Amino acid sequence: MKKSFIVANWKSNKATPEVEAWLKEVKLEAQNTEVKVIICPAYVHLPRLKQAVSEDALRVSLGAQDISPFGPGAYTGEVNGLQIKDFAEYVLIGHSERRTHFKETDEEVLQKIQRAVEVGLTPIFCIQDVSVVADEVKIVAYEPIFAIGTGKPDTPENANAVARKIKEKNKHVEYVLYGGSVTAENIKSFGEMEALSGVLVGKASLDAQEFSLIVKNIS
Ligand code: PGA
User: Fold this and answer.
1) Which of 167, 168, 118 is nearest to 140 (CA)?
2) What pLDDT shows up at residue 33?
3) Predicted TM-score (pTM) of this structure
């Protein structure tokens, strides 16, 4: 089986009791070894999830949902790459919600990629169509706007065709994931596409049972 990433993007969801409930319910032990699960919670939950990982209660890797475009310093409210690095290996960059709600520009997104790479974090770079991505980016998530949070995913065939074109245009990209309304029901059809190397899951990752099924059903 080819390597598959399943990335959970919790977005700005879950307070501490809900994280505890999720940890109690989730069952990821049936994982195929070629499946890599990455959980991206809000920053404040990274320490608790790291603890669960180190106690072997959770066999996953961790990611942040964003990163400061700056290093350490006088940037009130920002969380920088070195701070993230204490807890996580990955970071989502360029998500369309950041571009829409926080007016993130291409320039800022590029700075974030550079900050991530500098400290040894692996960026998972989100794009909405076939575009050119920075040389440092090895993992791309194709997330068409119409499919995010709508319950209307792209077809696996189209996502596969887009993934192929992204790789043709960006020879340095090793993995293309698909994101947008992925569920336990449709995961298998995305998992079967040869140019796709996994999925980015928003809403369906919040429910521990559904997320466990997604992990089970991809392999
Ligand atoms: P969704 O979100 O699975 O809720 O559509 C995906 C994403 O925005 O990463």
Assistant:
1) 167
2) 72
3) 0.96
